[in-house]
Write a structure and sequence with these properties.
single chain; alpha+beta; Rossmann fold; 3-stranded mixed β-sheet; 17 strands
């Protein structure tokens, strides 16, 4: 099911040329590998020695006539540095998709301006459902402090939103936050040799008890917007309670990333909110945040880094940041 669905969503066929940059132990590689096998598309593996050099990656894409990429946003943000995108036309590039992190609107707009002919797709799906369970084709403009929707469920998959009392939140209940649960044909059977962890993460559908109907408990916090689309706010792991308020660190990062001179950011909580940001210059971000955030969401400390380190999956390495505190 997943392979057929992703080929349809990303419009992959025998004429497609995919470029994979994720290690094979990362679930996102499954998308590239099996969609290519199913469709007869060409799959290129990005050489490791090119990963740190945006110009080299884009040059490789141009040489291979890449038509499809589906990477994590941190990598797409990395490729925006030094106006690298302006130096390559990449006329063959048709589909630009991402998964695994929040996509900064500023990064999205940079790619859209460079490749107006391409289709942009926000994918969502944890490892436990073997790939993508929802997607959103970007067909409208977004403000730089907005969060992109994760859209609608893919075929044979259903994404449900429940509150803390396991009451279903419907699309009519806009802006009410809850946790995402997933059901469908792609769902995993559990964790190997970890019965207790499996029992906690895979539960019976609380809407009925007529037959076995497992839901995967994602740990992701979301809500519906006015268009009936699901908006991802962050993980429960990143949700903190500070000054009596529940705060999603991802929402703070989205606002900070909207600053024109910020390339990327990550917030860490250790008795207080600390923001690490990547920029060419150091400046007072508190003034900017006071205009965009309520007082209890403003970080207590801002730390400038020349570069936010990425882990092997291409995501911001938050463990490294915690060691810097």
């Amino acid at each position: 099911d997943y392979t057929y669905n992703i080929c349809e969503i990303l419009q992959i066929n025998q004429n497609s040329s995919l470029l994979n940059q994720t290690p094979f132990y990362f679930s996102a590689s499954v998308r590239d590998i099996f969609s290519s096998v199913k469709s007869g598309a060409t799959l290129h593996l990005l050489p490791n020695h090119l990963f740190a050099f945006s110009h080299e990656i884009l040059s490789y894409m141009q040489e291979q006539n890449t038509t499809h990429i589906s990477w994590v946003p941190s990598v797409l943000t990395h490729l925006c540095k030094g106006q690298a995108l302006e130096k390559f036309q990449l006329k063959s590039l048709k589909i630009i998709a991402w998964v695994g992190e929040f996509m900064p609107i500023k990064t999205l707009n940079t790619w859209k301006n460079s490749f107006p002919h391409a289709i942009f797709i926000n994918l969502y799906g944890p490892t436990e459902i073997a790939g993508t369970c929802s997607y959103c084709k970007i067909d409208r403009d977004f403000k730089e402090n907005e969060i992109l929707p994760i859209g609608k469920s893919s075929n044979n998959t259903q994404v449900l939103l429940f509150d803390e009392n396991m009451q279903l939140i419907t699309s009519k209940q806009t802006n009410q936050k809850g946790e995402l649960f997933i059901r469908g044909s792609n769902i995993s059977l559990g964790y190997y040799n970890e019965k207790e962890k499996t029992k906690q993460a895979f539960i019976q559908n609380p809407l009925h008890d007529n037959y076995l109907d497992l839901l995967y408990k994602t740990g992701d916090i979301a809500s519906y917007n006015e268009f009936g689309e699901l908006i991802l706010h962050g993980r429960k792991d990143y949700q903190i309670k500070y000054m009596g308020h529940r705060i999603e660190l991802g929402e703070i990062e989205s606002v900070i990333n909207s600053h024109p001179n910020i390339k990327n950011s990550a917030c860490i909580f250790k008795d207080k909110i600390i923001c690490f940001y990547e920029s060419d210059e150091e400046f007072n971000l508190k003034i900017f945040c006071k205009e965009k955030l309520v007082s209890y969401m403003i970080p207590s400390q801002f730390i400038k880094l020349d570069k936010l380190q990425l882990n092997q999956n291409g995501k911001i390495d938050r463990k490294v940041l915690k060691e810097l505190i």
